[in-house]
Amino acid sequence: MTTTTPPAAVGAQQNDGSTRASRVRKRLNSRTATVVAIVIAVVWTIPTFGLFISSFRPEAELKTTGWWTAFTDPQFTLKNYQDVLFGQSASSGQLANYFVNSLVITLPSVLFPLAFAALAAYALAWINFRGRDWLYIGIFALQIVPLQMALVPLLSFFSRGVSLGGITLMPAWNLDGAQNFAQVWFAHTCFALPFAVFLLHNFISQLPKDLMEAARVDGATHPKIFRTIVLPLVAPALAAFAIFQFLWVWNDLLVALIFAGGSEVTAPLTVRLAELAGTRGNEWQRLTAGAFVSIVVPLIVFLSLQRYFVRGLLAGSVKG
Amino acid sequence: MNFDFADQAPKMMMLLWGLVAFAVVVGGLLFVLDAVPSYFARRREAQLVAASASGAPLPRRTKPREGFFALFFLLPTVLLLLIGLVVPALRTTLLSFMDGGSQNWVGLDNYRWMFADDAIVRVLLNTLVWVTLVPLAATAIGLIYAVLVDKARLESVAKSLIFMPMAISFVGASIIWRFVYAYRGEDQDQIGLLNQIVVSLGGEPRQWLLDSPLNTLLLIVIMVWIQAGFAMVVLSAAIKSIPADIVEAARLDGVNPWQMFWQITMPSIRPALIVVVVTISIATLKVFDIVRTTTNGNYDTSVIANEMYNQAFRYGQNGQGSALAVFLFILVVPIVIFQIRNLRQQRREG
């Protein structure tokens, strides 16, 4: 860079030149950095944005021209949403109904593991009993069992009960109609517990030891400490897990397919959407609006509670 | 309008039952745990009063032991895990050595079938491609983005954009991307973004999801799109937790950004990198929704989880489905052992 400078001026110029060069390089660097970051951000947002715009375009337009033409020739309608949510024909989606199913599936599937795991995590962290460490390791290790390992036997457990050598240990559940929700709640609760215990244990075990001992000395029993001290202190962790589980259950397809079935009484939005995508893959006016109906609730939850979600994510993945 | 509130009533009743069951179980548990110790306390008090009145020796303490509480705190979790996970997983392992109807023992036949049937070998290879490419691509993009937007203006907005796909279901994401890959004949206007780009560059539109092996790569793009946000968030937190004095010292030594990245940032965030790669690998091994929603496993795109579902729940081949599930589990184990090793090593160093 400085090879052409006359020897007499080398000292002064070199210094000056190198700072200028580094300044230029730095600016170039930061400019490339900005460009790359913007490119990634655009690529990550455009697909969702395109689908969102399309969901408001009239069917005829949507099927014949690209969504980007909506900027030069704007034509928007809410008809797609009306059709997909409340439409008369069986092919239209009737998503309002499935939306209710998703809600009914999700609420208990979040509450049960949350409560059970909080209790278990407290016991594993603060009650002394024999075999505690082994039990914790066992529950921790169950995280790696893919839920595929449990699906076939669990389904037969619900439909045929459990019998050993001709003796019925557990009768079949014999559920029908809306009762099938119980199966889905049960499955989601079981599958969520290992991670839930692990995540909440991470938080609960880090509460100050002095606090617990002081409470014990004051004569507080474990249930009392759990309710009045632990629960309020780990509320952010409870929120983190609740968001995780909410997103997981609301967005789940596999568990719902197997335990809720495809009937309109119990199937959630994801099952219905996957079905529409399979049988009516070119009815974009329904798929676009339908996809947004399913996305909107988790998106609201996610954006409003992102802080807790990120905290849980970091505690759940890095400390482990 | 086809939405009748009367149709929803049974579901709402069921939801109500679920919530009542929740209140009864959890509330009942806490009540029992509260009531029993106070019963013991009252009885002891009464005994003490009686003893001091009659001058008899004080009775021995009868306080419920710690184990009693532990039992009740852990009972629901342990029971549910046994019924819902442990016993079924053991049974699946047994079923994998039996025939489709789970009547007769067939030894290793199901595993032999897995590696002999060309279609299934294809499935295993596809899974291998997924589990190699997704963690690498998602982590790389997440890392680059995390470094680029670190301390930039609007950092949190920029991060939200990449992170948002995590809130979208795999089914929703699949529909979003199917729309990007949508195809119209050559003489028509394209409605899919990818084909529009190809056409405007002078190419011919293609049915992207039908051409193997390109279609598998395009499905992998969807998974990378979802997982990069996770990688970005965890790695960004790791970058921010690098001690400021190390960064400052390096800067005083005149280290350029490139060297800074390789000599300071990368070694410091290595543990977080490993966690991210491991977590994404495990999630990728189990990927099911994306393949099912986009191609339903046709055109040579199927993966293990998808094939397991088809065998066990569509073709009624419990044996073969179970063998695939067990194989999935076997694939997860080395990844987890790798992570545990790393954690141990880290702890020894730290």
UniProtKB/TrEMBL annotation, chain A:
Keywords: Cell membrane, Membrane, Transmembrane, Transmembrane helix, Transport. The keyword Cell membrane applies. Residues 1-21 have a biased composition (Polar residues). Residues 99-305 form the ABC transmembrane type-1 domain. It holds the Pfam family BPD_transp_1. It is a multi-pass membrane protein. CDD domains: TM_PBP2. SUPFAM superfamilies: MetI-like. It is found in: Cell membrane. Belongs to the binding-protein-dependent transport system permease family. This is Sugar ABC transporter permease. Residues 1-22 are annotated as: Disordered.
Automatic annotation (TrEMBL), chain B:
Keywords: Cell membrane, Membrane, Transmembrane, Transmembrane helix, Transport. The keyword Cell wall biogenesis/degradation does not apply. The chain crosses the membrane at residues 12-33, 68-90, 128-149, 161-180, 217-239, 269-288, 322-340. Pfam families: BPD_transp_1. Residues 124-341 form the ABC transmembrane type-1 domain. It is a multi-pass membrane protein. It is found in: Cell membrane. CDD domains: TM_PBP2 (cd06261). Belongs to the binding-protein-dependent transport system permease family. This is Alpha-glucoside ABC transporter permease. It comes from Micromonospora gifhornensis.
